[in-house]
């Protein structure tokens, strides 16, 4: 055995004896709680459907009305999370989530111009409901502040992006609601209403 090989083997042996448990997980930096709050709703069907429906409704009503949801919806998420942690508020039954999606879908399909106050109230109530539901993932080791920040950031980004996509697609400044673009958005509303109806049926069946 050559001197170089023996030296390499001895060095490797020394390194192996000095090894400790690797702690490269981002959770060790506590940022994992932020990402958990941001990613959990994006992996839950009820959140994905409800958030998408709300963003579509906001975009269909125009930027002047929809921009209020950018602040109202994340606030509702944080309040719902806080109520679940502090007061032990239980999540709403699945039938309530299904009816909410059904109502939003019908509003989209009918192209109703609901007042801004009613839109904000709907967004706030939905945010509180989903905030309470997302509190189920909290464990004693979870940093509540980081988790809430991640959840609110996800709500802000989701509503903003979906609303912007709808506004860009519809071109509300140049095309009326009965143009083919408006009809396409209304058709999506019909599909959402159908999804809400199926969710309601499944929740009642179980």
From TrEMBL:
Pfam families: HupE_UreJ. The keyword ATP-binding does not apply. It comes from the Bacteria. Keywords: Membrane, Transmembrane, Transmembrane helix. InterPro entries: HupE_UreJ. The chain crosses the membrane at residues 34-56, 68-90, 102-133, 145-167, 187-205. This is HupE/UreJ family protein. It comes from Bradyrhizobium denitrificans.
